[in-house]
UniProtKB/TrEMBL annotation, chain A:
CDD domains, per the entry: M56_BlaR1_MecR1_like
Organism: Roseibium denhamense
Occurrences of domain Peptidase M56 (ranges): 149-274
Alphabetized InterPro entries for the sequence: Beta-lactam_resp_regulator, Peptidase_M56
One protein family per Pfam: Peptidase_M56
Transmembrane parts of this sequence: 6-27, 47-68, 123-144, 329-350
Name of protein: BlaR1 peptidase M56
PANTHER family named in the record: POSSIBLE SENSOR-TRANSDUCER PROTEIN BLAR (PTHR34978), SLR0241 PROTEIN (PTHR34978:SF3)
Keywords annotated in UniProt: Membrane, Transmembrane, Transmembrane helix
Automatic annotation (TrEMBL), chain B:
Recorded family membership: Belongs to the BlaI transcriptional regulatory family.
Gene3D superfamilies: Penicillinase repressor domain, Winged helix-like DNA-binding domain superfamily/Winged helix DNA-binding domain
Protein name according to UniProt: Predicted transcriptional regulator
Keyword DNA-binding in record: yes
Length: 383, 131
């Protein structure tokens, strides 16, 4: 197996594992809401980020597991393999398919990977070309957005700086936002906001909280990997969930701080939204804050997303909801560990079987017997 | 000195400061702060930042007197009015000032006197052009 095949296999496994993580997250949310358990948003955000790290580290976990397995340090029954399991189910009569069709179904992924990696004429070349073009388009868009962000930062007026934090004022942005450079964190506030000192204070508290939560780094990571996962709805669901929960977590953290009045904070969000919508209308929909930034609120309508008004309403409702759980980190670990186990086992189960098992030999024998029978039938046919 | 940023137009809060500066001719941040209505409650630092931005955008000139900066407008109110109207006419009225005036007449219920003044202005302009 070539290195390209291996990398492509890891990439496909990552996509499947991400899909599994989304399913686990949705199930956990559903169970939580049925039981009336509502985790505090900062806790939810930490869980989301931890699970994403687990997903991205799963290929390393699979490698470590394979190594331990080959050394005999892991019991054989733990080395689950999805394809081996399917074969054993087939032999027990659990799957009603002709043996040859079942074999080609089992080998479908390997065949498709090979066709795409070698750009075999036909479907392989088509998918490889479409994939390369889409990734190139995504990377181009990312660079364009980063250039736009750079220009926007350069055009903004310097306000203050504290160490690695730079505050800027802009005439053109619709809402305050934060962005991360290589060495510095930037917070950009519309110049108009200087006229409302109370709002400026609240907005800065909100943006500083984003920096504290590490949201700028997560946003950057998600934007960088986005071109690679452009076709995976699980990735977009995950990103949207992160975007929503990080705002709610930030609001909750700011509202809980001393000296912050909940009503004033909600009114500040409302005024910022009002200003943003007015600015959006003045500029006829132009000058959207570039990607890879974390904005106070979204005032632009986006495809397949809640409207800005609905988002704001959910945020205010979430702020007024005070009953939320903040379990001790050890309880959270009890939740994360099984999830980590499921993600790792899923990664292991998706691997190609290491060698020919008894069941596989049996399947191969059945296929050969079926072929022989076909040949014999053809030979016995009268001329 | 901070780099000049090219931006031809003023934001709402900047316009408020420029209007005061046009009224008083020149002044320090403290002078401008004193001109603002008391309910504005703008901190000195915010006022100073707005004046610094106006300086960066090229709307004001600044000179140092002792420890304070004295600001004076670099363009007249009339010049900025013309610039804003031209921009409005280009962006919102597809470069047809006539439709802008028509909308103005419709919306503001201009009195006979106002209309007479506009007519006199146009007549004067026509005579100037003819010369």
């Amino acid at each position: 197996m070539t290195l390209t095949n291996q990398i492509f296999d890891i990439y496909i496994d990552l996509n499947i594992t991400l899909g599994l993580a989304v399913v686990l997250w949705v199930i956990a949310k559903h169970i939580g809401s049925r039981l009336g358990l509502k985790l505090a948003f900062p806790v939810q955000l930490s869980l989301l980020n931890t699970v994403l790290v687990l997903v991205f580290l799963s290929p390393l976990g699979v490698l470590a597991f394979a190594h331990l397995h080959s050394e005999g340090a892991v019991p054989a029954y733990m080395a689950v393999n999805l394809s081996d399991y399917a074969v054993s189910q087939y032999l027990r009569g659990g799957i009603a398919l002709p043996a040859e069709e079942f074999q080609s179904l089992l080998g479908f992924r390997a065949w498709l990977t090979e066709s795409i990696v070698t750009a075999a004429p036909g479907i392989g070349l088509g998918i490889a070309a479409a994939f390369a073009a889409s990734v190139a388009f995504g990377i181009g868009k990312l660079f364009l957005s980063l250039t736009r962000l750079r220009r926007l930062l350069a055009e903004s007026h310097h306000w203050r700086s504290h160490g690695r934090l730079v505050l800027k004022l802009s005439d053109t942005v619709a809402t305050p936002f934060s962005a991360r450079g290589i060495f510095k964190n930037y917070v950009v506030v519309p110049t108009e906001m200087l006229a409302s000192p109370e709002d400026v204070k609240m907005v800065l508290k909100h943006e500083y909280q984003h920096i504290r939560q590490g949201d700028l780094v997560w946003e950057m990571v998600l934007e960088i990997v986005r071109p690679l996962f452009f076709w995976n709805p699980a990735f977009f669901y995950w990103k949207q969930e992160v975007e929503t929960i990080r705002e709610l977590a930030c609001d909750q953290a700011v509202a809980e701080r001393r000296g912050v009045d909940l009503k004033s904070y909600c009114m500040c969000l409302l005024r910022a939204a009002e200003f943003g919508v007015r600015r959006r209308q003045e500029q006829l929909g132009g000058k959207r804050v570039a990607i890879a930034t974390v904005a106070l609120l979204d005032v632009h309508k986006r495809l397949f997303r809640k409207s800005p008004a609905n988002k704001l309403r959910s945020r205010v409702e979430a702020l007024l909801e005070t009953r939320s759980l903040r379990p001790h980190w050890s309880v959270l670990a009890l939740v994360v560990l099984p999830v980590a186990g499921v993600i790792l086992m899923a990664g292991v189960a998706l691997q190609k079987p290491a060698d020919w098992s008894q069941d596989r030999l049996m399947l191969s024998a059945i296929i050969n017997l079926e072929r022989l029978e076909t040949i014999n039938t053809l030979a016995q046919r009268p001329d | 000195m901070a780099k000049r940023k090219s931006n031809e137009f003023l934001t709402e809060v900047e316009l408020e400061f420029m209007s005061e500066l046009w009224k008083i001719g020149e002044g320090s941040v403290r002078d401008l702060q004193a001109c603002l209505p008391p309910q504005r409650k703008l901190a000195y630092t915010s006022c100073a930042t707005i004046m610094r931005i106006l300086d960066e955008k090229g709307f004001v000139d600044s000179r140092k007197e002792g420890k304070t900066f004295i600001y004076s407008p670099r363009l007249t109110k009339d010049t900025y009015q013309s610039r804003s109207l031209r921009n409005l006419s280009e962006k919102l009225f597809d470069s047809t000032p006539a439709s802008m005036v028509a909308r103005l007449v419709d919306e503001y219920e201009l009195s006979e006197n106002d209309l007479e003044e506009i007519r006199a202005l146009l007549d004067r302009r026509r005579t100037d052009d003819a010369d």
